[in-house]
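Design job #97: recover the sequence.
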């Protein structure tokens, strides 16, 4: 199961070693500044600041230590001027994302400015030299120039650290694939390149292993899950209890299978159940929804790219919602978002109950799957899709907009929402199609454009806003 954790980064504080003897108060003051900085950021990122690096050997030793400890990233901070050449070999061997924090102790040059204050607030030209060296190395750091006391600075560091953490964490994630939908082209890509680029492992599994776990589920486990559903949903009276219990049992079986084999994400194609001989009687609509809400990655139809994006969503932002654009509404200037019924009910609007219904479904030749019905919380929203372009070339399309506050539509038997892109549905969809946007998307409540852009930067993939 995937959870957001506080990132851990190393802070590379660099300066000349000219002042140790003549002005020992300067290194002391700059060390105090870094400690104040790390205390200010402590609620969003854990920072390791071992010491000030005052020469090339110190820089290389500290950067190597950060890499050996496998931190999420490195914050590079010029405490005074430091010659840029000193960072070259350290950064040449570095594999961690880098943030250049172009900051200084004081935010304003005042009338009492003097030589001492000039000396201790001269990081800008060191940052310029360092950034120039990284540019010529082909290293692309994230850069922030800001007053470090501000919320804007803290928010920026938090977003970057979350992106760096997500990149690292992806390397330990495994996802299970239960077949792919035949002929569906935009879910296909180079799976070797996928593993090389993102580090997430995908394995093809047999649904028979889930059937084995299904047969072991106890009555007590089903009782517990049904009770949990009763807390989260308004269970419709016409939903047969046995159908609900079957869905709960199927959910438990999928989770037991994933825990047993170390998976944190899964993507099944709906045909596998019938092709297996119908040993399982329902599609896991409720189970997929509950597991996505619980913290597992999920997509439908064997789409490993959408599955990866839900994994990213859990690690980077929280509460990713798997969906697709079902229909366009030119009057609302929006897209009707839905799928077969799976989705993350954690994003549901707060003023309406989430209904659990007996839902007829003529796909897969199976029994009615209990299905949660809800719409997303109205307001600012971010939509994203991950596009396999060619080989190891990927791009992410991101669209910021809003979920509209609309009336219920009784005839839609699955979760649905109206998403209105900021640039309008016509222009947004033109760009979506132009850049190869896929038909599965992941939706997030709120504005997360910068954090997603930062992730694209640290992953070295193209990012296009549509």
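Job complete. Output follows.
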């Amino acid at each position: 199961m995937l959870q957001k954790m506080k990132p851990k980064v190393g802070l590379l504080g660099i300066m000349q070693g000219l002042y140790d003897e003549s002005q020992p108060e300067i290194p002391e003051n700059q060390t105090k500044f870094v400690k104040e900085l790390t205390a200010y950021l402590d609620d969003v990122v854990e920072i390791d600041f071992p010491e000030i690096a005052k020469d090339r050997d110190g820089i290389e030793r500290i950067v190597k230590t950060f890499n050996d400890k496998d931190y999420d990233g490195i914050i590079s901070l010029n405490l005074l001027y430091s010659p840029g050449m000193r960072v070259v070999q350290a950064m040449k061997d570095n594999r961690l994302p880098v943030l250049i924090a172009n900051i200084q102790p004081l935010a304003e040059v005042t009338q009492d400015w003097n030589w001492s204050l000039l000396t201790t607030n001269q990081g800008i030209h060191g940052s310029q030299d360092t950034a120039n060296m990284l540019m010529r190395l082909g290293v692309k750091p994230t850069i922030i120039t800001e007053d470090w006391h501000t919320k804007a600075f803290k928010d920026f560091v938090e977003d970057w650290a979350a992106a760096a953490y997500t990149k690292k964490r992806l390397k330990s994630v495994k996802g299970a694939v239960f077949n792919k939908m035949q002929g569906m082209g935009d879910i296909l890509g180079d799976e070797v390149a996928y593993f090389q680029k993102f580090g997430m492992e995908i394995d093809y599994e047999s649904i028979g292993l889930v059937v084995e776990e299904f047969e072991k589920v106890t009555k007590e486990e089903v009782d517990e899950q049904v009770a949990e559903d009763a807390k989260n949903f308004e269970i419709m009276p016409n939903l047969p209890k046995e159908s609900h219990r079957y869905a709960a049992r199927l959910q438990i079986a999928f989770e037991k299978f994933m825990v047993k084999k170390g998976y944190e994400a899964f993507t099944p194609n709906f045909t596998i159940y019938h092709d297996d001989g119908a040993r399982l009687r329902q599609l896991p609509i409720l189970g997929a929804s509950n597991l996505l809400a619980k913290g597992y990655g999920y997509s439908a139809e064997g789409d490993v790219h959408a599955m990866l994006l839900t994994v990213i969503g859990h690690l980077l932002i929280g509460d990713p919602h798997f969906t697709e654009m079902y229909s366009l509404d030119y009057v609302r200037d929006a897209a009707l978002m839905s799928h077969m019924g799976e989705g993350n009910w954690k994003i549901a609007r707060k003023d309406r109950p989430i209904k659990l219904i007996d839902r007829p479904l003529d796909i897969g030749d199976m029994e009615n799957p209990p299905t949660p019905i809800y719409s997303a919380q109205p307001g600012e929203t971010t939509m994203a899709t991950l596009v396999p372009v060619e080989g190891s070339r990927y791009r992410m399309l991101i669209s910021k907009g809003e979920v509209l506050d609309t009336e219920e539509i009784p005839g839609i038997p699955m979760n649905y929402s109206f998403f209105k892109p900021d640039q309008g549905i016509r222009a947004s969809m033109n760009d979506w199609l132009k850049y190869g946007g896929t038909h599965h998307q992941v939706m997030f409540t709120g504005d997360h454009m910068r954090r997603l852009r930062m992730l694209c930067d640290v992953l070295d993939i193209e990012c296009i806003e549509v």
